[in-house]
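We treat protein structure as text, and this decision shapes the records that our systems exchange. The tokens are whole numbers drawn from a learned vocabulary of local backbone shapes. Below, we set out a record of this kind in full and without editing:
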Amino acid sequence: MSKTVPIKPKPIQPDSKASDIEAFVGASEPPLAEPSPRMKRLTFDIPADLHKRIRLVCVEKEVDMAAELRCILQERFPA
């Protein structure tokens, strides 16, 4: 047996102006980010102990593992 709960939209206040509503909606939009370069996936096998070391270093530095590896590859293979 499943229970359904109807969700009603929030009513617009009678004294609300269209500009107030647009300002509220516009304020919640995230800023536009710069377009990222086209990405391609690269898959290869590495030893489990190397993977663990990379993962531990990335956790300690609080960085994304893929971003860290991209940085290393950029240094090794400059444009």
Q: What stands out?
A: The chain has a mean pLDDT of 83. The first helix runs from residue 18 to 27. Residues 45-79 form one domain. The chain is about 45% helix and 0% strand.
